[in-house]
Amino acid sequence: MPQLDIDQAILNPAAAFAEPEAIVDYPQLTTDQKISALRQWAYDAREIEVAEEEGMVGGNEDLLQRILIALDRLGYPIDAEHTAPSKQHPFTD
Question: Is residue 90 domain-resident?
């Protein structure tokens, strides 16, 4: 397995990992790094959803759900009840 550039993996997790679950299982990342990478991936997935709404070809429909499940496995709380008025709502701190 090649050495992972952690900073790049957090900035572009889809390029470093085949699926969100791989981030959770990757032993060289701390929990905080895993959460950061998954949050970035979720942000990117929501941006793709916006592009889809604007008529551009999109990606994987269940990707965001898989990311949220991975975050839940790490103990990261997602508050779906109280969200900000944006596409990025679960991740506004």
Answer: no
Tens of pLDDT, residue by residue over 2-15, are 689 999 999 999 99
Judge whether 16 lies within some domain: yes
Q: ∠36-42-43 over CA atoms, to 5°?
A: 90
3-state helix, strand, coil in the chain (%, to 5): 55, 0, 45
**Chain centroid, CA 77 distance in Å:** 14
- Domain boundaries, position 44: 6-77
pTM for this prediction? 0.77
92 domain residue, yes or no = no
Domain count, the chain: 1
Cα 15 to Cα 11, 40, 77, 93: the distances in Å are 9, 12, 25, 25
